[in-house]
Amino acid sequence: MENPLLLFPQLNISASKDKPYYKVMKSAIKEEPHKASKTGAKQKRNRLSLLLQKPEFHEGAHLGKPGNLTKAASVSPEEAVKWGESFDKLLSEKAGLDAFTKFLKTEFSEENIEFWVACEDYKKSKSAHELLPKAKTIFETFIQKDAPKEVNLDFHTKEATSQSIGQPLLSTFDAAQSTVYRLMEQDSYPRFLRSDPYLSLVRGRNPARPVLRRRSRSFTVNDFQGVRPDFTAW
């Protein structure tokens, strides 16, 4: 397989200067033998998840320490308020993306934003020969059964994506990316806007250290059909 560091030079939201995210991911995968049983696969993902929580696997001190969402970015209250206008607005700004990524780490669901960023980078590929190795890396990291950072996709979306990996197009991951985007927008984003660290940014105070949340049950997009986020609480 192609070196993923060459495939995703711009993907660095969860990487340190010494150990880029995809290098850490690939080495961790190689160290873990494949296990056929569901129990073994779950233990493998849990160990890898704990490994990736260590500060040395994250980009800079401000992402390595829980709670300090945007220490290095010096986000103003006015800028933080704009993140509440829309999920698109939050992700379009680097400081907002970093803050949201840090929040997802506290909920142990950062694979969603990492997958979304990987798809954004994939769509920027400038030549056809880049697509196949990049597509395989994304598929093996985020989509295939028991992938180390497997995202929650419905059967039909996963199946359609799997069938196109052999001859990938720029649109290969569009359906999967849209599904994960909607899940974040309707589930994680409202909680981010109600979180103490975000509210502290809006009020112009230093973010307090949040309490790490255990991952709740996995949701699918069907859980949110017809549901609109309620932002009145914040």
Automatic annotation (TrEMBL):
InterPro entries documented for this protein: RGS, RGS_sf, RGS_subdom1/3, RGS_subdomain_2
Protein's name in the database: RGS18 protein
Entry keywords, A to Z: Signal transduction inhibitor
Domain RGS residues, every copy: 86-202
Keyword Transcription set for record: no
Tagged with keyword Ligase: no
SUPFAM superfamilies: Regulator of G-protein signaling, RGS (SSF48097)
Swiss-Prot/TrEMBL GO biological process terms: negative regulation of signal transduction
Gene: Rgs18
SMART domains in the record: RGS
